[in-house]
Amino acid sequence: MKKYFKFVLLLGIILIFLTGCVSDLVTPESDLNSEATGDNPTSGDQEDGIVPGRGTLKIYLTDAPGDYSEVNIMISKIEGHIARDDDGAEGSWEVLKEWSGGLQVNLIELEDFSMLLASLELESNKYTQLRLFLLGEEGDAWIVLEGSEEPESKIPLEIPSVYQTGIKLNRPFEIVAGSITKLTIDFDAEKSVVKTGNGKYKLKPVISVSSETYFSGEFPEEVSLGSVSGRVSYCNESLELVGIGNANIELTGGAYIFANIITTSTEGIFSLVDVPAGSYTLNVYAEGFYDYSQSIEVIFNENAVVDVVLLTRGISGTVVDSSTKLAIEGATVNVELVGDTYSSFAITDTEGSFSITQLPVGNYELTVSADYYNPYLHAVEIGVAEGAINNIGEIVLTLVPSP
């Protein structure tokens, strides 16, 4: 009896050790064609935080260092395999996250960062493994060798069909009500890219997966999420704010890279969810407008509201002498927004040229002054076209008559 008890105790200790937080090396399998269910009503991105009776699954992607400038792959889907139920019924595959058109990832950018791939609220359950799907059509995957920067230096990376139908990642994990389960997929790009005998490159994935479980009050920064939302607009001639559609919104500078880089709606609205808590730079890019950057702080379980007003290109022209038509250097050109206190100025260069940039859209009064010349006193309304330099041509100044 004592021997039996010691055997059971030893077996229990071994099981605890094997199910701990240890990275498991993935051996890609060939039997990857079992059909996913894809109809789980509880999966999908939800607002961050613990839902009573449910647990949270957060999936991150990172990469080991590699001697490449770029290793680009396209992820299409992640599935999880639910273990057998209590009645012994066979488990099934469940779609956890799917990207329409694929999610492009440069693995080399993840050497010192983690990308948040998914944040899901799920029913309590046990999973035996993950399955990662890659796209393999022409242009979906490529590498750039170290030191290469030209566009033609992109070398196609072959994705064998066996990996397009799913790479099995053997890491059992459990979703526990009231807790956060963090899975980190560590993709070793250096070992995964193989040069073939004919000089081509193909992918043979070497991946490890680690898991961690956190309960309320134990969440580290990388699983503590907030959100960022706001509106991107410009000021029209009536001094009204008008939304800018299709502006690109990006967060940089944080401790984590994540996949939700988005564009604004037709009304200029944007919303970034599942953002790891921390300090970031919000970058806004829109065609015809100056790029915009602002430091923001993302706080756990809170939404940071950032409303952005973009500025247009501006006004340009040339100041010349009325008699000689020669350029006037050092003239001061001042513009003032009609009906507002906004104003700006520029000094003409050796060619008499000036350019006043980053002006809100609107009508302006323009005045020009220079030593020995009569000031240009006529108020001129200038409609600054959205997203363009409004070149008003030559401004002619006359000399002050000699006494």
How are the secondary structure elements laid out?
Blueprint: H1 2-18, E1 24-25, E2 54-63, E3 68-82, E4 93-106, E5 115-123, E6 125-134, E7 142-145, E8 154-158, H2 161-164, E9 167-169, E10 173-175, E11 179-187, H3 189-192, E12 193-195, E13 201-203, E14 207-215, E15 225-235, E16 241-243, E17 248-252, E18 257-258, E19 262-263, E20 269-276, E21 278-285, E22 292-298, E23 303-305, E24 308-309, E25 312-321, E26 332-337, E27 343-347, E28 353-359, E29 363-369, E30 382-383, E31 389-397
Structure description:
The protein is mainly beta. It folds into 3 domains: about 25-220, no CATH class; about 225-310, Immunoglobulin-like (Sandwich); about 315-395, Carboxypeptidase-like, regulatory domain (Immunoglobulin-like). It is about 5% helix and about 50% strand. It contains 3 helices and 31 strands. It has helices spanning about 1-20, 160-165, 190, and strands at about 25, 55-65, 70-80, 95-105, 115-125, 125-135, 140-145, 155-160, 165-170, 175, 180-185, 195, 200-205, 205-215, 225-235, 240-245, 250, 255-260, 260-265, 270-275, 280-285, 290-300, 305, 310, 310-320, 330-335, 345, 355-360, 365-370, 380-385, 390-395. The strands form 6 sheets. Strands 3, 4, 6, 7, 8, 9, 10, 12 and 13 form a 9-stranded mixed β-sheet that branches. Strands 1-14-11-2-5-18 form a 6-stranded mixed β-sheet, with no helix packed on it. Strands 15, 16, 20, 23 and 24 form a 5-stranded mixed β-sheet that branches. A hairpin with a 5-residue loop joins strand 26 (about 330-335) and strand 27 (about 345). The chain is elongated and about 105 Å long.
